[in-house]
Structures are given as structure tokens and as C-alpha cells.
Design a protein that fits this description.
303 residues; 10-stranded mixed sheet; globular
Amino acid sequence: MNTLGLKWIAGALLAGAMTFAGCGDSSPSGTAGNGGTGGSAGMGGEGGTGGSPVATVSVGGIAWGFTLPEQGGYDLIANATISVLEMPELTTTSNEEGEFTIAGIPAGSQSTFVLEHDDYPLSYTKTHTVTDADIDDLTFQVPNNGLFTLIELGLVEGGVIEEGVDPDKCQIVSTFTRFGRTIGDPGHHGEPGATLSVAPANNSEAGPIYFGDDVRPDPTRAYSSLDGGVLLLNVEPGDYTLSAACVEDPTDLIAEYPPEDHEGESLRCQTEAVEFESVLMKCRPGVFLNASPSYGLQALSPE
């Protein structure tokens, strides 16, 4: 399963042996919010919706955890508190299979989904503008605290960040995902040749850093690979819009991925200006954010 969580595992195992980039906080605690107060859902509020629309929807999915190899490599996060950042009264608990559903989310609202568990860092999804349709395939992908600790060691030893993960900043991950791919599909997920833009500004200590085909973060890359992963490290708190575009000059991209040697792969950035969905990320202190497939930097239809 070529997921972003497995990228963390591969990178962590190579910590200290390569120029590594990853992100996380070895502590699951932290406070965040713009004026909210802490609650049992953990993150307090960021302001209400200003009244309940008539229509509400349900959002559900699975919480995936990624662990050290001796712990099995991955897990389904049971008994995690799942809530909505902007509406902390909406909360539920994941079951033994990591599954969860939150009902009563107003259509048209902004909703950032939050995961809290003692064994995992505090985690957010991207911020969704909720439509009038239910969602049943939302995912969290979160390295556990032990893996975070190893990742942080690799970050410092690799010289990617100077003093480790800053608890007053956030860590952001996403994937440039080819059209039609979801998190459960086999093979590569990425659309190679994409670059990341951050608005209003890239306030990170390091990044964007793109993952290579071997699922290792590679600070020397100038664009996305077949893997598609990208990360920003130690980002100043704020609201950021991540956007993607193909490289202007595809010469190096074509040389790296000759079409005749990559049959069956998506190489659209070699011949067209692919459009991607943008994502809104609410960066708060001590938070790990992952806009994973299929709610990340998704390539739009070629039609």
C-alpha cells in the first residue's frame, strides 16, 4: 500500500543515513485555535457557523496509524476522539476498526476534522467546504509517537531543520494525486512534474520537499515524483492555501520519466497544464496536518 503513511516509515528507517525530511511532534498534546477554549474534543472552537442551515450531512471514514516496523508497520486507530475544529460540540469516537462517523454537519460549512489519541500526535485533515452530500471515505494518516521521535531525529541529523520539530509550529503533508486515484488503489498515486505554491506565503523552515519514487523525501527534487508526496516543516501558525501546477519547462521531467519506459503511468505534466484542486490548511501550534488522497492536491479531469 503506497500511502503517505508508509512514506513516513520508509523515511524514518533511513534517518541518519540520508538527507531526510519528515515531520511531526513526538507529543500528542498541544493547544490551538483562534480564540477557542479547550474542551473534551480537545481543540476548542474557531467560531460557530452563524446558525444552522436546514441541511446537514454525515462525514465518516477510517483513521490509519503508522508505526515502527517492530510494532507491525501500521494500525487502525481505535478509541480516538474525532471532532470538528470549527464545531467542537460535534464529536465521536473511532471503533476497533478505526472507523468513525460524525453526523449533523451543516451543509455549506467549513469543517476541519481533528484526531486526538494518546499514542498519536494531534492531527488535522484539510479544511473541507461541506457540500450537501455525505462523505464516507475521509481518512486520517498519522505516524504514532514512537515513529515521530525517530523522524525528528532524522530531521536534525540530516540537517533539514536545526533544532527539531518546533511545538509552536505545525507540520504539513499532502500528495499530488493523479486523476481518479484514491488512497486504497495499488501502485503509484502521484502526478509527477507538479510544484507546490503556498498562499499567502510559505512560512516554513524547510519545504516544499518532494518525495522521490522510492518514497524518500528528497530535498534536491524540484517537482513531484510518481509517488506524489510533499511536505512543509515547522510552519508558522496561520491559514494557508496549497495549490499545484505543472512545471513550466518539462524537459527534465521527460528525461526522468521517458514515456516509453513508463507505460501505464500518468505523465500529463509532460504535455499539458494539469489543473489541481487547492486545499485549505489551518496550521495551529503543535499540529500535524495531512491532506491525503482523495482529499488532497487532486489532479482534475483531463476533459
